[in-house]
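INTERNAL TRANSFER SHEET
From: sequence group
To: structure group
Subject: Lipid droplet-regulating VLDL assembly factor AUP1

Please process the attached sequence and return the structure record in the designated field. Keep the field labels unchanged so the import script can parse them.
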Amino acid sequence: METRGIEQMFDFQRLPNDGLVLLLLLLYSPVGLCLMLLRIFIGVHVFLVSCALPDSLIRRFIVRIMCSVLGMHVRQNSPRSRDKNVKLYICNHVTQFDHNIINLLTSCNTPLLEGPAGFVCWARGFMELGGGAESRVELAGTLQRYCSIPGAPPLLLFPEEDTTNGRAGLLKFSSWSFSVTDSVQPVALLVQRPFLAVTTPDSSWLTELLWTFFVPFTVYHVRWLPPISRQEGDSHQDFANKVQEFLATELGVVSTQITKADKAEHIKRKRHTAAQTASTNLGARPRTVPRGFMSASLGVEDPRIVRMAQQVKDVLPDVPLSVITTDLLQTNCVDTTITNLLERTEEYPPEAQSGSSSDSLRQLPTSPSSSSSHAAALAPIPTIKPAAKSFGRCPIDRHMSLQERKEALYEYARRRYTEKHGLNQEENL
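Return from structure group:
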């Protein structure tokens, strides 16, 4: 799937783009902050109750009611489709709390694949593996031994291994998850909430929990699908692809070949592009003076911009002053503006010089030498635009090309100044 498909599978922005929804969210913010503080206090009690009571139907019912107060509403469809003989549940991954939601409906264990073990792992409801499997093959072997234990609760695995928004597509299922057992039960999960995105790639589980407490509610729709068994001759990847296609069809999304590594690479590339764009905008940031204020009238312009524009005008007399001023507002640098104007290919209309020409004609001296020099100054001078013939392949070639253009520019400016003021080439040297 192309980059546009990856963009549709993840919400990189938490806040909405709709102005009306953003306004409603702003009006709701004071209520949301108060609700978040209250739910943090209630959440501590929910954690203590879940730790104190043993795993049973009564505990799941009580905790589920208390989670509704926290804004986490759980709904399930087709609960009778759940097969008690199946030892492995396969679910799509949307939030950091999917395993907790499924655990409110039935007893199951989810192994910790990444992250530190210890109290945080236990408090979040993950199952710690004693040996600490270093590879997915070792992890699959450990889970196979777990499933062979009589009376052990079923396993809940997320073969996508990372979260999506659940609205566009599924990440490619990993094959190791389907090497644990030959029969799995797919679980379709759909998460909805108002105002904000359900999850973003850069958020931690604690940040997601605070946002969950902030919004009015988050609805988790859980649908139990019929079990699927491995057919004879199917490999682990074939079995994974079959379950992925079935689950994607039930969710109404696309089954993709995008992996967790592709998501990480896309996020890294997106961050690099955003940082590069921000640095570019910062380097070309215009001055605080509005562009409309910087008109062609020199009497109302910033004196510094006027002085810089005059310096550029002395070097490039054929470029209109308004064009020079506009470029200086963007670059704030004389050399950069000269380079930008030299690289342009359009021709500029000549500026009106009637007043200055008449004044200079009144002050013409009568001496022959002066007349010849002023005649040379009034003679048309061809416009020169030093430009590179080709783009250098290495930085050294590009630097030499820039130096040649500068030398040609300085030579043109020197000749223009000499002819304008009636100086001899020998006197100027």
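Handover comment: Strands lie at 72-77, 88-91, 155-157, 169-170, 183-192, 218-224, 228-229, 254-255. The chain is about 50% helix and 10% strand.
Transfer complete.
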